[in-house]
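Minutes, structural biology subgroup

Action item carried over from last meeting: produce the structure token record for Phytochrome (Papaver somniferum). EB confirmed the sequence was re-checked against the source entry. Recorded below for completeness.
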Amino acid sequence: MSTSKSTRPTSSRSGSTQSRQIARKAAQTSADAKLHTDYEKSEQTFNYSSSVDLNVSNGDSNVPSSTISAYLQKMQRSQLIQPFGCLIAVDEQSFTVLGYSENASEMLDLTPHAVPNIEQKDALRIGADARTLFRSSSAAALQKATNFGEVSLLNPVLVHCRSSGKPFYAIIHRIAVGFVIDLEPVNPADVPITAAGALKSYKLAAKAISRLQSLPSGNIPLLCDILAREVRELTGYDRVMVYKFHEDEHGEVLSECKKSDLEPYLGLHYPATDIPQASRFLFLKNKVRMICDCSAAPVKVIQDEKLGQPLSFCGSTLRAPHGCHAQYMVNMGSVASLVMSVTVNDDDDEMETEKGKGRKLWGLVVCHHTRSRFIPFPLRYACEFLVQVFGIQLNKEVELGVQMREKHILRTQTMLCDMLLRDAPVGIVTQSPNVMDLVKCDGAALFYKNKFWLLGTTPTEAEIRDIVRWLIEYHDGTTGLSTDSLMEAGYPGASSIRNEVCGMAAININSEDFLFWFRSQTAKEIKWGGAKHDPVDNDDGRKLHPRSSFKAFLEVVKWRSVPWEDVEMDAIHSLQLILRESLQSGAVNDVRTIVTVPMGVDSKVQGMEELCTVTNEMVRLIETASVPIFAVDSSGNVNGWNSKAAELTGLDVQQAIGKPLAHLVEANSVEVVTNMLNLSLRGEEEKNIEIRLKSFGDQANYGPVILVVNACCSRDIQENVIGVCFVGQDLTRQKMVMDKYTRMQGDYVTIVQNPSDLIPPIFMIDDSGRCSEWNDSMQKLTGLKRDEAIDKILAGEVFGLHKFGCRIKDEDTLTKLRILLNGVIAGQDGEKVLFGFFDRQGKHVDALLSATKRMDAEGKITGVLCFLHVTQPDLQHALQLQGMSEYASANSLQELTYIRQEIKNPLNGIMFTRSLMEASELSKEHQQLIKSSTLCQEQLAMILSDANLESVEECYLEMNILEFSLGEALEAVMIQGRPLCEERQLQFIQDLPVEVSSMYLYGDNLRLQQILSNFLINTIRFTPASKDSSVFFTVIPRKQRIGNGVYVVHLEFRIAHSAPGIPEALIQEMFHHSQGVSREGLGLYISQKLVNIMKGTVQYLREPQTSSFIVFVEFPLARQIEPR
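Output recorded by EB:
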């Protein structure tokens, strides 16, 4: 179901894109929960199409938070797994069993078949040491793997059960209380799969990757087709589809590769509820999802009763499908599936960290099979790697598509401007091209001076007049409106015109005149062959089936058009500014284009005056343009030269006028310019031609000015060409960067391939992990020739555990090498690591390995450059010091872990005492105090569980999104600050509006408490201790409607205190992390990072008498109760 709204002013792009996305997803999650509940309550009589349509109609209805919580709990913590493997959950510190699946004993051969063995019988139980279930080498491998920060990089770990030696792939992922270990059985014939087998999978993926990368650019459908075919060849599934998620969250099958006897799904559109938001979140966490047999009975997981909540299976490969999804698969004849997520750069993410832009879910690669099917983990990993490369290629194509659309819009705007000069504003609807060529639409209309000009599919003149009245009455304070649903925008007459138009973009060119673009409903553009089905299939609309999904989607979009893109709205807004500018100075005489008067002497004089006005306005617009514009007469001499052209070239207007243009361009551009002039004088206008202008004066030192220009013919009143106008775009900087990059690349290659002994051992890999450079020093050091290393996978073939290439000592070394290379390719800064291997003569070589990322001219990572620093005595000493430092760091970490564990013990006691108090009869005041105490305890427990501060520092920490009371959260913050205020004898003044206590928001309340309490405590700590000193805490809420029944609350928190305020050094530490940071500075730094993760801002304002922390954040509004 698509409940998202797309109604906004046309004045600019929205500054709250992230908030709208969160609000839309929150509303969508509510709809998902409602639909899932409806299915479970009435499975036998469930009508999918009508249920989706009903949820659309009631999109603003409240779904109880308990229903949503239960739904999310079932999706993420269902306590059920698929039976093709077994699961064990272990404690992070002690490795004791916290939970296990009921089939674990049988799969691990722990179930006695003859006389029971006591040791065997009790091996798997809650609290047992999980390492005793496996052979000693396997237990050690598991223990080492869990000691790595990013444990998923080491998956799979090959282990053997203790009793029978049966091999398993252990796939480990971290959860809040420890680790979940998925165990998938391995065919004994395939045991070497972590070495040769994984290498084979990488090779298979590498061939497919090379085929993807060899495709021509600008063809996303072809890219999707090749991906679907390659994945089907790799996996052998009956059907492989590439899904895309559109802006309104609905999905579309873009590509399909299938068996010939299967029904086609290519072109299928389905509502957003088909793939719920909770599932999409899980696809971002676990990028590959396999269901071996949707009809197989799931296996229950038994867990320690002391755990506060069910174990999370978000990252588990074994997580069982929920009933609704399993039934959908059965109805469409699919038994097994494999789904992989496709992610691209999130251009709406305004915050860009050092790790790069955030990622968003673009779509899915979905594989279906009509029989049960199991794909081993290494092959799944190879497919995941292939899809990641597809995501990189796709990102390039998306960016290229945006650039092409922007160029098209720029060309159209240029032509429309030319029309406006001749006949403003009517020319843009009466001539060709017209306003319909500016953006994709089905119709357009101009309402000017109480007259109409209609193009394409539009409402009638009377209906447009009614729309104008509605805009003036309800949107008078804006410059226009854009919406993909006039019904949801609140237009009363939407239902009467929906057969013609659903979406509209409107701009006012003055107080009473408007320009419109219209779009028809989305359903008119949708075609799917599978929608033609047997009319006797009476149950088609009720089943969970692609046909009913398509029918439901058509119901969803019957009131909706294709959304307006930001680039389209920017183009419309630019045209609005041009229109207003062109009409403003001629406001008195602007009737010239629509009023006809007798052509007497007075009218001729009036015409001359109007012509002068238009000419002067045109000259002013050209002169102040932000791009270089120059013109020549029919002889090729310059007769126009705007200020931007003068600025770029250093040649002022007086010097340029009258000179032949051929004398102002570089020698290699003379022929190009001459040819353009000749063609233009014949009426043939060329576009996007590169020329180089000479530079003069102070600009001469910077070399020629490189422009890409469009030629536009200048005509007289008889339409004879009398000159040419050139509109250019300055590409000098881009060309300089590219030339510098090319020169650097040449120098780079020369240095690397130099045979001198002074050049250290250097090798490189591309972004797929294959060796692309192996210099002379590496050949001497390893004994491995260049042609033996090039195009081989570095971690596995060049350096590996086998005899080919250079053998390394153990699997740990290979794992560390993979982690280093993968991290650098992902954008992380590489660190020096100790690396040892045996050369071709069997001699062991110790070295320090340095890895840095290689980037192309656009700044994109293309591979890794590696240096080997061969060990010398002074280097040995450095390594010894590094080892001592690492040992000391490990001891400190152990001490910190001990302290955290010891704090948890009394905290558990406090929480238990609080639970006893809650069970007793308390007054409302005492209940409120208990609630505040609970929130403080939960905040403390959360902080103690923050084991990975890197996720905060790098801004990829996941917030816990739930419904919370803003008033209760702020009261918990106040309680933390009052004791210190009383101790320091300070006045604590709080100013909270009444509506704050009635607001329930979606977000992470504990992180908000952590942020505000930290700023409050530091404010109190650095306030002079005096009864005359005060600390002020205020909050200013502002509620904004962003759709039908969807609101965002903007919150401004101010925490003020008396001068002199917090020391400047601490404020610097809040924004700039360093090694010697103070305790208070670290707390402020983490709080500032948490604000960034929440898409908010924080500043510290110093004034003569007071200083203040000012925090801006925003949350979607869940509900608001009436204040008492």
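Discussion: The first helix runs from residue 17 to 41.
Next step: EB to file the record with the rest of the batch.
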